[in-house]
Structures are given as structure tokens and as C-alpha cells.
Amino acid sequence: MVKLLDTDIKTREVKKWQGVNILHFQGSSCSQKLRIFLKEKNINWKSHHINLVNGDNFSDWFLGINPRGVVPVLVDNGEVHIESNDIIKYLDNKFPSKILWPENETIKIEEFLEEEDNIHLDLRNLTMKFVAPTFLMKKKEKDIKNFEESSNFVEGIKDEQKQIQLKFHKNFIKNNGIDKSSIKNSIGVFKEKLTKINNELSKQKFIISNQLTIVDIAWFVYLRRLEIIGFTFKENYPYLSKWFYELKSNKVFLKETSLPTPLKIISSIYKVYLLFTGQNLKKYLNKN
User: Fold this and answer.
1) Nearest-CA neighbor of 79 among 15, 157, 13?
2) What pTM does this model have?
3) Residue 133 and residue 253 share a domain
4) Cα–Cα dist 60/66, whole Å
5) CA 279 to CA 275: how far, in whole Å?
6) Among residues 48, 81, 100, which one ends one of the domains?
7) What is the Cα 176 distance to its own chain's centre?
8) Structural domain boundaries, residue 250
9) Looking at residue 237, which CATH number applies to its domain?
10) Comparing C-alpha atoms, which of 131, 243, 126, 257 is closest to residue 194?
């Protein structure tokens, strides 16, 4: 459980916040996962939207709450929790009305969520390549510099996760986007994971059992993003496809994972550009 120490929190005003406060971004996959979870659990929460496109996550104010510069963040009665899966496990225990992290499935859930977390940068690679133009995805150098110079302590020790985030954004600027080898590797990673999940879904209704769990929410969010990018599932992953479209019929799942209207328009135009310049997803899928 990643919970900040009092000395880690530099933006002191949040220490006075009461109730369940969520700092999130509409297009963040981890934020989408948490918002669906909160609605499934019927938990009342206060929204604090952090615009990642504008670089709000690299402001002194936000970095004083989460030194890693990522969303979502939970502030629960002044206590700050900063990792989405940890936040979900904490809230599932605190609000046991509808259990989405059942204790008897803990080992399986942690295994699947660890895999999901390990390939988060792969999802980011594909998102930043195929959803919108590079100039919209690129962070301002002044924001990166502010991030680099900000506090680097989580739970009282220097934080390695911040360096991973910093390296990603620096490489994105240096390479003017995501390089081809990273795209090919990320596509290969997802093909492997989708095959594994399809096999699991051939055995039962949901990924780890016949009961909806946080694993289903987490992987639905990833598949929804892959669908937006251009992946299709029916031909190669029939069980996964059936599961995905059943969950997609849930209005909450669909709404929380949809692109904002302005970005949806930009993304549609950008996909045409990628098609005519020979950089579209289909080209990479055929080569992979």
C-alpha cells in the first residue's frame, strides 16, 4: 500500500480535506479503472480533475501531493494514497457493500493486476502513437524540468518510480514520439496477454471466476483503449470478445472509457493522416 508519510506531502491544504477525494484525468486509463470501481461500489466521492494535456500533473501544487506526477490519487480524510490498485484495494476493504477484490481470490487478482501494471507503459506507447498527434502528447520542457527538480520522496525514501516516469517523457521529447521498435514490442506484449486472457475466459464467465472482480474492470479499460486505437478481438480472441462486448453494454463502463468529444474528433482526423502516411496500426499488426 503506497500511502504518503506526512513529511512527503508538500501541498499541505489536502491534509484538511474531508471524505473521499479523487484527483484524476478523464483520459487516464488508471483513472477510468478507479471511476468505474467507485460507481460499481456506489461510493460517494469528490472530484478534482487534473488536466494531463495541460501539464497540471507537473505543477508544484500537484507534485506536492503526488511526487510521481501521475493520477489517480486518493485523499481520504487528509491521508494520501497514490497507486490505483492500492487505492482500489483500500477502498474495497473500507466499503464492503459489494466486494470486487474477494479475499479468497487475492493471489489470482494480485497476479493479474501486477501484469496489468507492468504493461502500463506499453499501453501508453500505443496511446501516444495512435490516438493523437505527437505535438499534443508531448510535455513542455519547462514542465519536465519542474518535475525533475521537485521532491523525490515517497514513504520517506527516494522514489524509483518517478525516474521511470521522467525517463519516459524525456525519451518522448528526444525521439519526437514513440520509436518503431517500442511500438512493435508493445503490440507483441498485448498479443501475448490477450491470448492468456482469452484462454482464461474459455473456462468461466469472468477472467478469474464467475464473479465480476477488479481484474475485469482493469482489463476492460485496457481493451477499450486498444479498441479505440484500432485493435479488433473477435477473430483471434472469441471468448475475450464476447466478455468485452457484454461489459461494454454497461453504460458506466462505456461512458467512463470514451474519449472526450474534442479528442475523439482529433483522433479520427489523425487516424486518416496515419493511414495516408503508412503509419497506421494495421501496418504494424501485419509486420508483428
Assistant:
1) 15
2) 0.96
3) yes
4) 10
5) 6
6) 100
7) 22
8) 106-138+177-287
9) 1.20.1050.10
10) 243
Which residue is it, cell 462486448? 245
Alpha helices in the chain (DSSP H): 29-41, 60-63, 84-94, 106-118, 120-130, 134-137, 141-149, 160-174, 180-201, 214-229, 238-248, 251-256, 261-276, 281-287
- Neighbouring C-alpha atoms within 13 Å toward the C-beta of 271: 15
Per-residue pLDDT of the chain (288 residues; tens, 9 = 90+): 689 999 999 999 999 999 999 999 999 999 999 999 999 999 999 999 999 999 999 999 999 999 999 999 999 999 999 999 999 999 999 999 899 999 999 999 999 999 999 999 999 999 999 999 999 999 999 999 999 999 888 988 888 999 999 999 999 999 999 999 999 999 999 999 999 999 999 999 999 999 999 999 999 999 999 999 999 999 999 999 999 999 999 999 999 999 989 999 999 999 999 999 999 998 888 766
